[in-house]
Every structure is written in C-alpha cells, then in structure tokens.
Amino acid sequence: MIVDPIAFLIASVQTAILYAMQLKVQKTPNPNALKFVLPAKKFGQPLNFPSVEAAAAHPLAAQLFALGTIYNVFMVQDFITINKLPHVAWVELEAAIQTLIVEYFREEVVGGK
C-alpha cells in the first residue's frame, strides 16, 4: 500500500491537535504544581520521578526534566502532575509541557495503538 506523505502529515497534525484539545490543565492546591489530565487512562501503576536521575529511563519524564525547571513528575492513571521550581512562572512552562505530552502520546494516537 502506498501512503501519500502529505495526507499522512496532515492526518498526523490533525490527530495531534485533537489530542491536545482533549488535554486538560488543572490547578492544584500547590501553586508550584499543575495537573495535566489526559483523555484516557495511560498508566497502569503510579510512576513518580523525583529527580533527573530517576526520570532517565522514562522518555516523557526525561524530556520534562530536560526543561530545566521541573523537580518532580508524577504519572498515575489518566493524569500527570508536574512540580516546578518556585521562581519560574507557569506561563513559561505550560505550553512546553503540553507539547511534550502531546508528542509523547501522538504516535499512539496516529499509529492506532
């Protein structure tokens, strides 16, 4: 089967946009933490990454820590809670975090897995 690369790219972008639209961001009682709610359950067990070293083996957690101002990532069922350093504003991080999350799950959505 021959796949039109332009059509595939358009479908991939549309799917990523739809997934991003379903990603909800919620405040928490902690002003340095945000909860990113996914459209479906993605984690069978809780995963906690309190450091760069702990996150190294998990691709998404490692990418989030690579932003440089994250100090904890907690993944459970259908959400990811991310803690940032107090001196950094969420406005500087939120879009980057959303992009990383959407890209991480994009292959699953586009590939139909």
Question: What does it look like?
Answer:
- This protein is of the alpha+beta class and 113 residues long.
- The chain contains 4 helices and 5 strands; from the N terminus they run αβββααββα.
- The chain has helices at residues 5-22, 52-55, 59-65, 90-111; strands at 24-27, 33-37, 43-49, 70-77, 79-84.
- The chain has a 5-stranded antiparallel sheet with strand order 1-2-5-4-3.
- A hairpin with a 1-residue loop joins strand 4 (70-77) and strand 5.
- Helix 1 (5-22) packs across helix 4 and helix 3 (59-65) packs antiparallel against helix 4 (90-111).
- It starts with a helix and ends with a helix.
> What is the CA-CA span between the terminal residues?
19 Å
Strand order of the largest sheet: 1-2-5-4-3
List SSEs in N-to-C order.
HEEEHHEEH
Main beta sheet strand tally, sense and closure = 5 strands, antiparallel
For this structure, what is the CATH homologous superfamily?
Scaffold protein Nfu/NifU, N-terminal domain
